[in-house]
Description:
By secondary structure, this protein is α/β, with parallel strands linked by helices. The chain contains 20 helices and 28 strands. A 6-stranded mixed sheet has the order 11-18-17-16-12-13, sandwiched between helices. The model is unreliable at 1-17 (pLDDT under 50).
Amino acid sequence: MKKNILAGFMAALIVSCSPADHTKVIDSTEKKVEELLSKMTLDEKIGQLNQYTSSWEMTGPVPEGKDQQDQLEMIKSGLVGSMLNVTGAEATRKAQTLAVENSRLGIPMIFGYDVVHGYKTMLPIPLAAASSWNPEVARQSCEVAAREAAASGIHWTFAPMIDIARDARWGRVMEGAGEDPYLGSIMAAAQVKGFQGDSLNSINTVAACAKHFAAYGFAEAGRDYNTVEITEHTLRNTVLPPFKAAVDAGVSTIMNSFNIIGGIPSTSNHHLLRDILKGEWQFDGFVISDWNSIGEIRNHGVASTKKEAAYLAINAGTDMDMEGDCYVFNLKQLVEEGKVSEATIDDAVRRVLKIKYELGLFDDPYKYCNEENEKVQLSQEHLDIARDLARKSVVLLKNNNQILPLQKDQQKIGVIGALANDKDSPLGSWRAQAVTGSAVSLLEGINNVVKNKGMVKYAQGPEFVTNTPKFTEELQFNESDLSGIKEAVKLAKKVDVVVMALGENCFQAGEGRSQTNIEIKGVQQQLFDAIYAVNKNIVVVLMNGRPVVLNNIAQQAQAIVETWHLGSEAGNAIADVLFGDYNPSGKLPVSFPRSVGQCPIYYNQFSTGRSANTDNNVFWSHYTDEAKTPLYPFGYGLSYTSFEYSNIELSSNELFSEGSIEVSATISNTGKFAGKETVQLYVQDLFGSIARPIKELKGFQQIELTPGESKKVTFKISKQDLTYYTAQGKWDVEPGDFKVWIGTNSQEGLEGNFTLN
Ligand code: BGC
């Protein structure tokens, strides 16, 4: 397509050195790897495939029988190739010294960490960044995160998470780019580019890790770590495209997923790892297991011992063992028994050493450990970027009677809700080294822009209580004390408009946080109802890590602003939007269900045999107690201005296999504000060798329009855009009729049609 964002982005990824230079670099790295490999004993090789966590920070279940002293000795003996969760210039230097100064060959370790949406400066959670529909937001976010993490001695982030997520019950929806493979692919490539920059050798970049390979987001019933049953077609057409985009963007590493697919654990899945990733895609980085996912092959009932699990995983193509102790204690024996070839071990080790060379660790193992560089963390420059990216990530879901934007100093505003005064939740889950409570709260953000302090008053409503301090404090609402609601009602009676923060606190979404009820529930619902009884001018500011069910709030609130968890500058960014200093431009990367019973719900579904209620009888695909459409569809988002779409035009209604056609429409700003619109292109392949989705996103463009201004937006469609994994088991196009839409979201659009010859 013209200005196809994916193609443009891929082109920009081509490194700036000439092809000849690039080949030389590759050649010399390969030579160095081979020289080193030839000096290594089998034990030392296996050591490179072993990763341990630092004992002072755990991001998974604490492994049984771990002895820190033993691990220190193993590092010194060259039996630990990598560590995770060691952070800080000083700590990483100390840990690196153990390996470099003591082991026979002095091979440096590679330090990995979950730097998902920031290191100290928190940027919007990835789901929010995807709501910007702007790959530059995702890229810049990862660039800032990489710079801060690299300054603390981190070489490698376990991000981006690029799992397609269609089920809002799954807590890890917050870590990804939502439900769509096209948008997901663009965001995946942008994130890889942001983390890795043009060269891993720079002290401002880190190696990226695309995870979780594969189909982790398809866990049955939205329950984390649960079974996945998925067809090869859905795997290829929906789940894998973001991974392919990440590989094409040069991602250094890939992480397995915890789930089984068709009974085979991803970690020991030969088809995924050897056939597709390392075979078809020629991926030349390394594959790391997830936390003890090799050991968990036993829990899946597919191996009875760690040794058997190691045998399955290494032969399937998993190169490094995270916290499983499966490789380091079993691979040697497996080689001696002829069950694993030394060539297989060599291949895995080569891949690990290659990334270490590319990071420059053999030139200077301490190059990232520099306290001076840590000053970049939380710098004003990074906070300014965080604010800018955060406001671009906000999605306006409703704005009746143009209640927004609010007027500074002219309206009495009642800010209500514990989340509005919460300096922690906006930091979100997976917050790396963010200081607890360091975000700008919504209340602070509003107070920063309203000069007349008498015009803004706050009432907390029900309070948070600390519930289960596990990894980090988990906050819940105090359901037993409703006195706060009375105070809030008192305030609501006296103000012109209520700004009410509702949603989820930071750790309600994230790993291990699946939920069966995703409503705004309990005391928050009671708070809304009580306020609504006395003041109808309610602006709901949602803070959450997944789509939530809004029930009556959707109808009764005058305005709804989706802010997700926006990071360090959340409050300032939300205030920018509420008062019109930034006209909201975000669009949903996920469908919002009307009720949890609709999950999984996504726009690019298949038609059923009984999609329409033509006979007015009960036997069609629907629910008897709820509409089957989402509350807010994929791609949906409003602006303070209004946009009108007109004049869809196709340069031809026939597309010949080597040619292309242009599809265009005119977009006009018919409102009072300058604004940004994301114009979306969808197609439907009407008949295929297998059923095709009723709509598929194939392109989007962002345009800015002043009031009264119109622009013609043109997309180019060629054969490549219409290929899919067909019934014949290959990527192909099938001639036939197509529908095409240009629209403002996945449900509304101007329709055209063409035939592919
Ligand atoms: C998660 C990964 C993460 C790893 C290391 C696992 O539990 O699934 O996404 O990278 O822990 O912290």
